[in-house]
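Can you make up a protein sequence with its backbone structure tokens?

===
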Amino acid sequence: MSEATVPQLGSLPSRLVRLYGGLALYGLGIGLQVSSGLGNDPWDTFHQGLAGRLGLSIGTVIIGVGALVMLLWIPLRQRPGVGTISNVIFVGLFADAALFVLPASGHWALSWLYLGLAIVSIALATVLYIGAGMGPGPRDGLMTGLARMGLSLRLGRFLIEIAVLAVGWLLGGTVGIGTLVFALAIGPLTQLFARRFPLT
């Protein structure tokens, strides 16, 4: 499909499809990366470690942490949208569903397949979700709120993600080669999908 034929999703129904399709793909991506056993992204390292300590599913922790992060929006004067609330609720539900149905990765080839599919899913999910234009995710809103207060967006993201990665690792979350591969690949792949599925 050429860029000229990419549909422009401007109506409310199409934006909702884009929103919830993105959230479902994001949850699937989390499930794939956790199931790979090769290492999670920073936030999911934290979610996995906390879930193990609390005896909860990772999806339950994703929902709980998202709700708590939104409380930090209050002093930052950030306003949630429909997409923000949906993000808090549905990403965790979709992640748990993916973890429930995915076969265990008992072979290195399947683990790497899971990791590759996870990165592709999350990159595409990010473009779809942002393109819906219905509010940032709770964690992204925290970083943009800090940027409004004068902290560099790049520095704020770096500091927050290093902190949650370190705490997640100490709690028992999985850090490994997959963490590094995700960090290196997610940006370029998201940019590639953004060209195919314009954000506006």
The chain is about 75% helix and 0% strand. The mean pLDDT is 88.
